[in-house]
Amino acid sequence: MQNTVRSSIRFSGTGLHSGKTVHMTIHPASADYGVWFRRTDILLGDAMLPARWDVVEQTALCTRIKNTAGVTVSTIEHVMAALAGTGVHNALIELDGPEVPILDGSAAEFVRVILKAGVVQQNETVRAIEILRPVSVTRGDATATLSPADELNIEFHIDFEDAAIGVQDKSLGMANGSFVRELCDSRTFCRKIDVDQMHANGLALGGTLENAVVVDGADILSPGGLRHQDEAVRHKMLDALGDLYLAGAPILGKYTGIRAGHSLTNALLRELFANPDAYRFVDCDRTIAARLPGAGVHFGEIPAVA
């Protein structure tokens, strides 16, 4: 069955790119509502934005959605991953600024507060998107693919010149709470040279060594070092789960990302929905539902860092 959060839950923090303080609340929502954002600081005009693939504005550094009135919400990927990974299908997310708070750069705090508040079952069946044949998009040396599988599996390959990251590969099924245990605490990462360039262009104004893993060649500049030796590829998988949840339903299929990012994953969803023979919607019985992200997850599985 579909789920929503048991009660309203609140967060406050800094926007990674804007550097501005933002307050955000995730409210329960009725069955079949989906996930929507509402900008409470927009007093005139349409302040509502659906968390959906076809309203994503193409950006390289984060996932940003934009409605027909020109209102935007940026950096939604971590909270979307948390909702997917805890099995929340319906929610209204209100915030008083243009960007979701970055918190510690991972999805761990979102997961911790969602599971502490609790997730409540509703009276409508979950519908999932079953991938029937492979679809793929490529840009330069980056590729993203969806192919048939019984559950959502995410496989990722990254390759960076910096020795602190280097080449990393990981594959993980998203069923049985694996997102919460294995991925949710992995932080966004960047190279110092890129940080300097972003600051020069007025970006990443809220970025610090406390909310991102910053590397410089072979050195990890962030205090405390890495949470996982392969934290970088784990975070790319976290991002992918959040971006895929913009499909509007859980996906039954395998996602393969090779040097992929936010815009390529969104392009993959656009390619999928442009090919009706590549997917179908299915009503989830108990067997299928048990393979969805968030099924059976419990508070004790959250990493200690959260």
TrEMBL record:
Recorded family membership: Belongs to the LpxC family.
Keyword check for Phosphoprotein: no
Keyword match Calcium: no
Keywords carried by this UniProt record: Hydrolase, Lipid A biosynthesis, Lipid biosynthesis, Lipid metabolism, Metal-binding, Zinc
Reactions the enzyme catalyzes: a UDP-3-O-[(3R)-3-hydroxyacyl]-N-acetyl-alpha-D-glucosamine + H2O = a UDP-3-O-[(3R)-3-hydroxyacyl]-alpha-D-glucosamine + acetate
GO cellular component: membrane
Purpose of the protein: Catalyzes the hydrolysis of UDP-3-O-myristoyl-N-acetylglucosamine to form UDP-3-O-myristoylglucosamine and acetate, the committed step in lipid A biosynthesis.
Active-site feature positions: 262 (proton donor)
NCBIfam families: lpxC (TIGR00325)
Protein's name in the database: UDP-3-O-acyl-N-acetylglucosamine deacetylase
Any GO molecular function: metal ion binding
Enzyme class: hydrolase
Sequence positions that bind Zn(2+): 78, 235, 239
Matching Pfam families: LpxC (PF03331)
GO biological-process terms attached to the record: lipid A biosynthetic process
Cofactor: Zn(2+)
Pathway where this protein functions: Glycolipid biosynthesis; lipid IV(A) biosynthesis; lipid IV(A) from (3R)-3-hydroxytetradecanoyl-[acyl-carrier-protein] and UDP-N-acetyl-alpha-D-glucosamine: step 2/6
EC numbers: 3.5.1.108
Gene: lpxC
Organism this protein belongs to: Shimia litoralis
Alphabetized SUPFAM superfamilies for the sequence: Ribosomal protein S5 domain 2-like
